[in-house]
Amino acid sequence: MSEADQLVSRQHANPHGYLGAHPDNGSGVVIRTFRPAAAKVEVVLADGSHETLGCVHPGGVFEGHIKGVDLPLDYKLEVDYGESGTITIDDPYRFLPTIGELDVHLLGEGRHEELWERLGAHVTEVDGVAGTAFAVWAPSAKSVSVVGDFNYWDGRIHPMRSLGSSGIWELFLPGVADGARYKYEILTQENEIRLKADPVAFATEVPPKTASVVHDPQHVWNDKEWLEARRQSSAQDGPMSIYEVHLGSWRLNPLEDNRSLNYLELADELSAYAKDMGFTHIELLPVMAHPFTGSWGYQVTGYFAPTPKFGTPDDFREFVDRVHQNGLGVILDWVPAHFPRDDFALARFDGTALYEHDDPRRGAHPDWGTLVFNYGRHEVRNFLVSNALFWLEEFHADGIRVDAVASMLYLDYSREEGQWVPNEYGGNEDLDAVKFLKEFNEVVHGREPGVISAAEESTAWPGVSRPTYLGGLGFGFKWNMGWMHDTLSYFQNDPIYRRYHHHELTFSLVYAFTENFILPLSHDEVVHGKGSLLDKMPGDRWQQLANLRSLYAYMWAHPGKKLLFMGQEFAQQQEWSEARSLDWHLLENPEHSGVQSLVRDLNHAYKAEPALWEMDFDGTGFWWTEANAADDNVIAFARRTRDSQRVALFVGNFSPVVRENYRIGLPRPGRWNEVVNTDASSYGGSGVGNMGAIEAEGEGWHGQPFSAEVTLPPLGAIWLVPERNDRATGK
Asked: What positions does UniProt annotate as the active site of this protein (predicted)?
């Protein structure tokens, strides 16, 4: 088969070796071009002269010999399509590869941490000609073409060149600019044509449209001071209170058909709200491009593109920038555990199981109907690790929360006997996934000091948040799903039965310091028929609100960082749905605005008291002062700073009975201020309390050298801090 036949039949892996300008036996150059349906093609030289190319193949291959010129040759092509008109273009096949040998080597080895800088579509200039450089990994393809608005979506016109065993296909297209829509047309080994979105696209069309979009970032960042401070800090050592948000349903615009706010509107409104509420971080359910709104972003089809539903990639950069300027961090949910089967995306990308396992026992997720990444393939691990770095470096994200880690770690996750394949040692651990997670954490923390990596991991896998050099997975934090389950289970019981479930409150401290825990009351607890947090609370309306307030005070005092899903800060009444706004009108009711005021005050009091966060992961910074009053439904515990200069005490009365003259042990003498009381009338409570302070007495109690008789409000909690805390630190 001649090279022209190969080209026309779309089986030529090196079109640049045939098309473009080439030496003509020392007597000039020969120029070839492939322009199907063209009536005539002329070469326009730099001096303005024209040379006509002859048609040498009926499929549309044109060729001409130009005497007296040498390479490199500056020329354009004038293509006459008869009644459709004439266009003048730069010949894409006269340019050298835009990817260097080192990049090709690193990409082929799966060790290119900045993969996004070479793959995808990059607006650039080559030899003074403006255009876009395209590159894609498709190692099993027979041929790959770029198609888009610029070539009438005709896969014959712009075949790409193969860069050898790396599996990379590359092409520079002059004249293609920011905003152009495109895809890759792939010819598989079975001669099937597959039209695929770019796995490394930086922008996408708004669903249900599925094309990739060329994007040339223009945002100028204004958060240099924030990033420098982050690099010098350690997230484990500071306060962390996370506001988890689904951007599409946080707040809708009722004046414009209840549309979701866009990135720029959210940049102002959401960041100002979270700042006022005292949160330290905003965590976003996945913002990576996804076609199905009902997946909440957890079925990603565009790993390198923010969803276009709320604006452009630069709009999202502006969002992060403004959040930083308001003094808050941004954590992104990230989904390397699985991806959807949508035919336009990653599934069987080049006709083979490229990103997924070929064996359905490894490659298909039984619960979610999705595909599982092949972590044993170094190029796939490279794709995912570089994707995490992309969001941290290109969008200045402050952290990555990895979704569904348990599903990655276990080969038998949600599988019955015979539906999974043991590892080489006969176990159920996915050793490839373990290797990937360790690599992810090592690279992320090595490249971006101060960033957060957190795992949603619900099993007893050891060392999730321990360094890899100590045998751990290397995460900075792990969600404490056990605490969440036990705590909600306790609070859902009617107080008359809570005495039988007292251990559900105290058990978390048995393992609280085995990991760097985040305490999550996340979106997963208020969907799928579970109801809102308020709806989970027992009793009448007043008791439900009182229970919720005491739950929050307990959570904010308990060792571990905090996470609360949007709407729960004002006692959202309905179960959350991505299809509607939060019930902001509830704030017209003092009961709901009271809960909001409590959460705001908890955040500010928490951040102001280092005893409540400085030793979150050191068991010597916590001690029980009353853990056994099950019949009273009372617990009390103390926290301290590393230097022991500051202490704080939590006391919770989870019964509906006011407990007067209730003696509690205190570790310090003097006056103790009641800095939080969930029963305060301003929060919607009954106003039972201790007049703002108590005085320690010399009588030892609960193993403490001092004590005091206090009034414990019904279904309420108090925080006590000695006045000498401030004197000890000069505040």
From this structure: 403, 456
In the chain, the amino acid numbered 89 is I
| Res 56: pLDDT | 94
Q: Mention every residue, 6+ apart, whose C-beta is less than 8 A from residue 587.
A: 570, 593, 596
By the 8 A CB rule, do 362 and 431 touch?
no
| 3-class SS letters over 103-146 | HHHHHHHCCCCCHHHCCEEEEEEECCEEEEEEEEECCCCCEEEE
Asked whether residue 41 falls in the same domain as residue 73, the answer is yes
The answer as to whether 520 is a domain residue is: yes
Angle subtended at Cα 588 by Cα 583 and Cα 593, rounded to the nearest 5 degrees: 85
Tell me what pLDDT residue 1 has. 78
456 is catalytic: yes
- 198, part of any domain: yes
Q: CA-to-CA distance for 122 and 21, rounded, in angstroms?
A: 24
Choosing from 456, 614, 616, 674, the catalytic residue is: 456
Omega of the bond leading into 207 within 30 degrees of 0 (cis): no
Helix (H, G, I), strand (E, B) or coil at 268: helix
Question: Which pLDDT band holds residue 367 (cuts at 50, 70, 90)?
Answer: confident
User: Beta-carbon neighbour count of residue 113 at 10 Å?
Assistant: 18
Residues 6+ apart with CB under 8 A from 514: none
Task: Round the average pLDDT of the chain to a whole number and report it.
Answer: 95
Three-state DSSP class for residue 437: helix
Average pLDDT over residues 318-346: 97
314 counts as catalytic: no
Domain end, chosen from 90, 117, 134, is at: 90
* Cβ-proximal residues to 150 (8 Å cutoff; 6+ apart), any chain: 173, 175, 176, 180, 182
What pTM does this model have? 0.95
From the candidates 42, 198, 403, 614, which is the catalytic residue? 403
**Judgement on whether residues 58 and 206 belong to the same structural domain of the protein:** no
Q: What is the pLDDT of residues 502-545, one digit of tens each?
A: 999 999 999 999 999 999 999 999 999 999 999 999 999 999 99
Residue 379: pLDDT above 60? yes
Residue 379 amino acid letter: E
Express each pLDDT in 596-624 by its tens digit.
Answer: 999 999 999 999 999 999 999 999 999 99
Spatial distance between the Cα atoms of 468 and 201, rounded to a whole number of angstroms:
32
The answer to whether 586 and 572 are in contact (CB under 8 A) is yes
The pLDDT value given to residue 727 = 52
Q: Is residue 498 part of a domain?
A: yes
Q: Given a cut of 80, is residue 463 above it in pLDDT? A: yes
Q: What are phi and psi of 513, to 5 degrees?
A: -115, 15
Q: Apex CA 134: angle with CA 448 and CA 167, to 5°?
A: 80
Written as one string, the DSSP assignment of 13-35 is S-GGGTSEEEE-TTSEEEEEEE-
Task: Check residue 704 and report its DSSP letter.
Answer: B
